[in-house]
Write a structure and sequence with these properties.
One of its GO terms (cellular component) is endoplasmic reticulum membrane. It is found in: Endoplasmic reticulum membrane. It comes from Podospora appendiculata. The chain has about 250 residues and is mainly α. Helices cover about 55% and strands about 5% of the residues. The chain is built from 8 helices and 4 strands. The strands form 2 sheets. The chain has a two-stranded antiparallel ribbon with strand order 1-2. The protein has a two-stranded antiparallel sheet with strand order 3-4. The longest helix has 28 residues.
Length: about 250
């Protein structure tokens, strides 16, 4: 949720802008150690050495998403073990904690980068896009048409994050430099779906007991109506006109 962008100024075309001193003279941009390390052809573990503390915290967000996927898979192997599906659903909000914390650390240390922004989006896609969709599959939303609807949800999240990376510098900013709003709902709002699925699991409303049952059962159009919630959420994420104020 806490998206990170570079502290360096950028020109209108997205290229790094030159620093301007009070006399109007242009000066070279400040040295970017991370960019130098990433572009280096030599040096052991240069990628690891190039990462900021905030980047490592972002990796923990991605780790939560991956572990959530594994927990859903373990539940598919043994559906009698509800602990695995609860773990899958609980790891998603834990990922949100790291997603929020990495931005705080980046602003505190005043070290942010384009690499951090890309890591943030990729981790969000795993934790808040793919993981909820796989959890939904695990609890029984798994007809062929369900697959397409869940895939639509994930692709909407992917598109929304890509758009954010492209437009991050063009969205109006407040006095502190933070964007004033999100275009479309942020992908971490999929936690609402996560909480809903956790409630269903607690009530035993999974598999054959999923709320609202199944439509067109036994046909190629067999589908669980609740999958529409994922599709609606996907549409909200990709909306251009829906502006969600940043807290």
């Amino acid at each position: 949720m806490s998206k990170r962008t570079s502290y360096a100024a950028v020109a209108a075309d997205g290229a790094p802008a030159k620093n301007i001193d009070i006399t109007g003279e242009s000066s070279p941009p400040p040295y970017d150690k991370q960019k130098d390390l990433l572009g280096s052809d030599t040096g052991h573990f240069s990628l690891i050495r190039a990462m900021h503390l905030a980047d490592l915290i972002t990796e923990l967000n991605g780790l939560c998403g991956v572990l959530s996927l594994f927990s859903s898979m373990r539940y598919l192997i043994d559906p009698s073990s509800l602990g695995n599906i609860y773990a899958a659903l609980a790891l998603i909000p834990l990922g949100l904690f790291f997603d929020f914390f990495d931005g705080k650390v980046a602003r505190w240390r005043k070290k942010s980068s384009m690499m951090g922004q890309e890591l943030d989006s990729l981790a969000d896609l795993i934790s808040f896009g793919v993981s909820p969709a796989i959890a939904a599959f695990a609890i029984g939303i798994r007809t062929p048409l369900d697959h397409l609807c869940l895939a639509f949800f994930v692709l909407c999240g992917l598109t929304r994050l890509a758009r954010f990376n492209v437009t991050a510098t063009t969205i109006p900013k407040d006095a502190t430099g933070k964007a004033r709003y999100f275009e479309g709902t942020p992908i971490p709002t999929s936690l609402a779906l996560d909480a809903l699925m956790a409630w269903w699991v607690s009530k035993g409303w999974i598999h054959e007991a999923i709320p609202f049952g199944t439509l067109f059962e036994g046909t190629v159009f067999e589908v669980h109506p609740v999958v529409v919630l994922f599709m609606i959420h996907g549409c909200l994420m990709t909306s251009k006109t829906l502006h969600v104020p940043k807290p």
